[in-house]
Amino acid sequence: MSKPEESVHVPDDPGAIKQAGWLGRWINRIGIVFAVGIVLSMFILMNEVILRYIFNAPTIWAHETTIFLCGMAFIYGGLYCTARNSHIRVVLIYDVIPPRIRRIFDIVISVVCAAASAMFAWAAYTMVLRAAFRPDGSIRLERSGSAWDPVFPGAIKIFLLIIMTVMAVQFIILAYNYARGRS
């Protein structure tokens, strides 16, 4: 008699951890936009290779656009990993301590990361002041200076400010929920 085939179960995507709250769920859902940006970058680069090496007609926008799209995805990736608790960490001590002490570690780590994210947000804010405003106060985004000259440098600095601010808030939510013992 033949043995029935075992079905292979692929676990569902866990998404954001419960301690991340509504903000974490929102961050997790938005992540697909930046994943699509990476795929779009690939198509842009494939297009550029074909245009450059087959038709000898390169574009002036492909390189800067792919750098911008990938940069946005990498910046968002830090926030995405925070909401999903999938960031890289050294677990030598963390994995062997009892759950009560691990919870204290989670609170302290979240508070320290919130402070660090807030400091990076402040640094990004000082960059945005120079990249988005002229000395007279009028708005003008920093440009790349290339032949195409897009506003990508200014836009990426604004995006970094937004993401670091949201990341600080996400870490505060995590610390609060860890302190309350929410699982």
From TrEMBL:
Q: GO MF terms on file?
A: transmembrane transporter activity
Quote the subcellular location field of this record: Cell inner membrane
Q: Which residues cross the membrane?
A: 26-46, 66-83, 104-125, 158-179
Q: Does the keyword ATP-binding apply?
A: no
**Record's bilayer topology term:** Multi-pass membrane protein
Classify the source by domain of life. Bacteria
Q: Does the keyword Transmembrane apply?
A: yes
* Residues in Tripartite ATP-independent periplasmic transporters DctQ component domain copies: 42-175
Q: Provide this UniProt record's keywords sorted from A to Z.
A: Cell inner membrane, Cell membrane, Membrane, Transmembrane, Transmembrane helix, Transport
- Which InterPro entries does the record match to this protein? DctQ, TRAP_DctQ
Q: Name one Pfam family in it.
A: DctQ
For this chain's UniProt record, which GO biological process terms are given? C4-dicarboxylate transport
Provide the Gene Ontology terms for cellular component: plasma membrane
Function statement: Part of the tripartite ATP-independent periplasmic (TRAP) transport system.
- Assembly description: The complex comprises the extracytoplasmic solute receptor protein and the two transmembrane proteins.
Q: Which family does it belong to?
A: Belongs to the TRAP transporter small permease family.
Q: What is this protein called?
A: TRAP transporter small permease protein
